[in-house]
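Reopening this one. Same input as before:
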Amino acid sequence: ATEKVLGLDPSYSSSKFGFCVAELAHASDGSGTGQINILAADELDRPLFNQALDFFVEMINNYQINCVYVDGSQVAFISSLKARLGENPDYHYDVEYYKQAGIDLDKTGMKVVPVNFSTKHKAMLEHTKQLTSMNYIAVNRKLSKLITALRTATATEFALDKNLSVHNDVFDAFRMCCKWFNLQQLPEEGPYAIV
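Same output, byte for byte:
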C-alpha cells in the first residue's frame, strides 16, 4: 500500500470546500519512486456540514488515507471528523501537550491533524513550490481546478495573493497535502512533472 494524505479546506456557505488526495508512488520493487501522484482534487460547492462529513469519512475509508490535514480554524469540523474516526474530539488538550513537549503533530500518530494557516502558510507554500519546481508532483489532466490553481497561484514572499489566484480552496488543500512529503526522504531529483 502507498502512503496517502488528504488535505481539507472546509467551507460551507461563503466559498467552496476544497480537498486534495495525494500518494507517494512505489516502484515495482516496492521502493518509493519519489513521484507524488495527485489522486483527487476538487471543490464541493457549499455542502451542508453533515454531507461534507459523510463524504470525507467515506473518502478516507475508500482511499485508505494515512493522514488528514484540516485547516485548524475549522474546530467543529475537526472535532466531528475525529469523533467519526475514533479519535479524541477534544483534541485541543492533545495538541497543547505535544506543543509543550516539542513534538511535531505529524509524528504523533494522529490521523486528523489541524494545520495552523496563520503561522504555517508561508512555509507550506515554500515547500509546495520546492516540490513542484523539482518535478516531484504528477497531476492528472482531468484535475482541471488544481491545474488552474497551480497556473494562477500568485505570491509575494510566499504569501498567496488570493485576489490574483483562482481556485484557492483546492490550492490550500493541495499545499496541505504537500506538507506530508519530506524532501529528505525523496531522491535528489524527481523523475516526473505535472502532466
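So the earlier flakiness isn't reproducible anymore. For the record, Strands lie at 3-9, 16-26, 32-45, 67-71, 112-115, 137-139, 155-156, 159-160.
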